[in-house]
Amino acid sequence: MKAAAETDFRIGGLRDLNILTDMRLAFLSELRFGCRTSTENELRTAAEKYFALNIEDKTYIPVLGSSSGKAVCCAGILLYELPPAPWSLKRTQGHILNFYVVPERRMEGIGTALMEYIISYSADQKISRLFLNSTREGERVYRKCGFVECDEAALILDLIK
Fold first, then answer.
1. Is the C-alpha dihedral spanning 129, 134, 140, 141 positive or negative?
2. In 49, 125, 128, 132, which residue has its Cα 20 to 30 A from 38's Cα atom?
3. What CATH superfamily classification does 2-144 receive?
4. Nearest to 117 by CA among 23, 6, 7, 9
5. Structural domain spans, the chain
6. Average pLDDT for residues 56-68, to the nearest whole number?
7. What is the pLDDT of residue 141?
8. Which of 92, 148, 83 is nearest to 122 (CA)?
9. Beta-bridge mates of residue 151
């Protein structure tokens, strides 16, 4: 699609903290996970601190897309290592987080292009597997890009409520 072709993707850095934080808060707001126990300022400060710390230590790789100089999408790859296994001695996993396209630019192919950029970058970096949680709205894009349900059960236990 034309809009996706006109979108420039790049790996972000500390200079992008405001963009990443703004998009994180917009993402949470759309999911109806707005501030429950914290003020928006507290959440903003905590998000900026999280991004700064994890970008600095290279465990969070921010990915941004812009069009005509304006940020239109972002995502992040949270990196972690699993122990060696018989099928792979180095098992770097990438958990895709904060996948977000601004509402006015959805349905233009930008989400698919962003995911394709993330997949290409991850392959170049020798990340062995990408994982994500999906909203119903995003699932179509992820499946189109090759994501499938895995045979492993994912179970969650919330310790802090």
1. negative
2. 132
3. Gcn5-related N-acetyltransferase (GNAT) (3.40.630.30)
4. 9
5. 2-144
6. 97
7. 94
8. 92
9. none
